[in-house]
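Morning - magnesium ion inputs below, output right after.
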Amino acid sequence: MKLVNKKIKDYTQIFHLFTEEEWTRTSKNFNKNISAFFTGKKNEVFINVQDQGIAYFIGLGKADLQPFEIQQAAIKFAQTYKGKLLAVPTLVVGDFMIEKQFEEFVKGLLLGTYTYPFESTHAFWNAKFELHFENLSQKKLDFISLKAQAISNGQIACQEWLNKPANLKKPDTLSLYLKNLSKKYNLKYTVFNRKKCEELGLGAYLSVNQGSAYDAAFTILEYKTTVKNAKTFGLVGKCVVFDTGGISLKNPDNMHYMKSDMGGATAVLGTLIYASEMNLPVNIIAVLPITDNAISENAFLPSDVITAYNGKTIEVLNTDAEGRMILADGLSYLVRNYKTDILIDVATLTGSSVRMFGDTCGAMFSNNDELKNLLIKTGDKTNQRLWNLPLWDIWKDDIRSDVADLKNISMKPIGDCIVAAKFLEQFIENHPKWAHLDIAGVAFGNVGYAKEKAATGFGVQLLADLIENYH
Ligand code: BES
Ligand code: MG
Ligand code: ZN
């Protein structure tokens, strides 16, 4: 795709963008019959075959729409018509559109080409696909083009890995991908195998991994800027490539969805791709504790007491509460070994958060009001919403154990997403700016590109926006 600020005369494709108001104002310039089919409502598309070429009239909805709604409309448009659209110079007409709106439109076109398995052979990814838009300077268009491709590459990588079936994303396959990705983007790549994890004392992570047929892969990816005094973000992404529940085996009815239990990690992965392609003036230390949660003769058992990286002991009462185990070590390893300004962990952590919010928002927990408010604001802006839940100390009582410092579940049938967050708080080593995002209900769900539930890409645009605009 290329963005060009010249108006072209001989186009074969034209995208006419309208809000309802804009259509009312300008419809008189068009064949009056069109109004019988087109009003400018969101997701309305009218196709008019004209002498010059094919005109797509694309409805965006009310004039006061938010930028993300333009992205949504563009995604829908691309998903519906992607088989028909041509890789040719295309004129875009939408005089009312400001820079941010056009940016969202372009992002939506690219994101809307995604289906599993992804093929970047679609017309929109072809250099011959030129979008001609004369309202913005070439400099601004170049920046929009860079940004739209960076966010699409990040989110598509996120969706692609989440959508892969379990047999195509064993820990070693994922590790190989991350290693190559690090080469491509010049990230520092570190991986600790089982032996190294034992030496380091990453006991909580290892307790989950010990039942796996695959070696441990406690992974650290570092993106560094040369800009001085840049902020450093610590990101921990839950990376359970498949969660059977372990010995506390899950019910099989919905078990196949547990290929999505790496949704935290893929959100972090997408963010790293975005930061790298945009060359953002920040540092990111990403910790991805990779494992499956398998059943085997070596699997950890309910009643096991294990020692975490920070020395705290944990009584395992349910092996299906494995995410908080691996995140515990991910968090304390990151805090003890790196200096970070902001610490965020992202995880498909609890069914409890799904029962609470469904697919409407992620559950957020934070010990810092500034970070909390910024995350809520960024979530609203990117339409990857978060809602804040409490971390009151009364919840700590529920995870006190008789035989260890902590137990990994409360045994009460209430508030498990809060209990899990309270558990994680015991491993942040007093970091002053931490947020935990439980995205179990939003990472995988109903999408426009698949019949069944699939990856939504939740978290990439949220974290990318947060990091890019953090001061
Ligand atoms: N990966 C699951 C959480 C989950 C549930 C993600 C639904 C996506 C959709 C997590 O590891 C888990 O199994 N949690 C248990 C904890 C329980 C045993 C305390 C749960 O929520 O049922
Ligand atoms: Mg589990
Ligand atoms: Zn899990």
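Note: The chain has a mean pLDDT of 97.

O.
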